[in-house]
Give the backbone structure.
Amino acid sequence: MNAETSRAISDPLPAKAGAQRVDVLIIGGGFGGMYAVYRFREMGLRLQAFEAGGDVGGVWYWNRYPGARVDLPSIDYSYAFSPEIEQEWTWSEQFAAQPELLRYIDFVANKLSLRPHFQFNTRVDQATWDAAREVWVVTTDRGETWEAPFCIMATGPLSIPKAPDIPGVERFKGRLIHAARWPHEPVSFAGQRVGVIGTGSTGIQIVQDVGPQAGELYVYQRTPSFTMPMRNVPLEADYVAEVKRNYPGIREAARNSAVGGVRPQSTRAFFSVTPAQRRSLLEDAWKQGGLAMLGTFSDLMLNETANEEVAEFVRSKIPEIVKNPDTAERLKPKGYPIFARRPCLDSSYYETYNLPNVHLVDCLSDPIVEISEKGVRTESGEIELDMLILATGYDGLTGAMLAVDVVGRDGRRVTQKWKDGARSCLGLMMEGFPNLFMTTGPNGPAALANIIRISEHDVDWIAAAMTHMKAHGRSTIEPTAEAEENWMGIVRTLAKRSLITKAKTWWVGTNVKDKPSGLTMFVGGFQAYRQYAAAAADDGYRNFRFGPTSAPPTCEPRIAAADPVTGV
């Protein structure tokens, strides 16, 4: 598809006065948005992308807090679409820190000349479908209006910080910092009385970094997290060269794995080996580090008894590290399955509690009452602070999408469609919202697989759908209501089997007040998800309705058929 032919189908009617017309509008400048800009530009399409931050990078543009680091291997957490980029870029560590990730993102943006297509420091307020002219009309906080037949929501699963649900935050007179909006300038902790609220992945990384620097550090733990050693190491030149020679095979293995990555995955059921063998395998995974333990047995998210044995193994490691028995006991996660919340990796988290200036405040036994002018008040009293860090997470999966007023056919809003929880077909499109696409949508693998592999897959699927439309003279595409419900039935069926539903977490929406709760992510694995998406396309998009000339499907969508991997 070149520029001349794309314009032939993308300008059904002239743009309205004051509006700027392109072929594709892209919202978001993270990994998904960046690849979308490249992919659609290479198809000859005119495009405009918008990003709320001051540069590309998505969550990594904002995540500048102390200790910020990726929890997937660097070679895995990188683009696979360009062999040239793979060969020219060299990672320095097994798990890259935020500054190196941002340098990589900058390298890609410069290499591919992506920035000219972005409007930075710009939020999209509304996106409305104009059915008569078959275009999406987008308005921004700059007062501009843009129009295009296609709109891509590359907003990602983690981009809207969650406001803390604690009274009195606005009264605090010290320095207040939200981890998800960390200052760009250096922050000094020397001699400071610092409080950290939140002990998820972000909080853990902050605590182990700030603990040795602060005058006093108070960690307000509301829910203990399971965390395992990262075992990060520098990457040696010989290994890097070996990886570069074998990138094609590494990428193919990642695309055909359940997690979209190179982490080993076992088919071994927990109780299929002897207790001694199980213990040995767990010890090996602990020594290996990273998320090796999650892939050691195949049924940890299905078999509650097996899951509890692994959880107890991890709990048993804490007293071996933390010297104070009471602190060690309070750090033990209980009451939910291991890996039902986002698994965390650390370098020295538990060791940090052995420092004399680091104090654990157990909010299960001593709940936070309010934040005062001077600090944090719990039921047992007030601790005065100079600085308070909020590591309270995000309005995950749906927050960024719902932050834009998206209005589809007949004035129907996404806020209405998702009032009982996110729903879509394949996490890519929604019935009633023609030509609106999502990358890493909340009904796909989303947070359960490598987000870069998902992003590349989703953008490629969207590009193929556009090419199909061009070849068949169609101007709009959307899933039928039946196809959408069939997909959501698959998602719900798989969710019922998963232990993820037994934890309160942003994965199921329980971290945000009044948000519909439930597991809406596809838990069947990335490889199975790819099969479903491919089947929908390979079947001639029979579970989608095209405009203006296509008729409703005359057969059952193939998406409803049983899958050989998941059995659903």
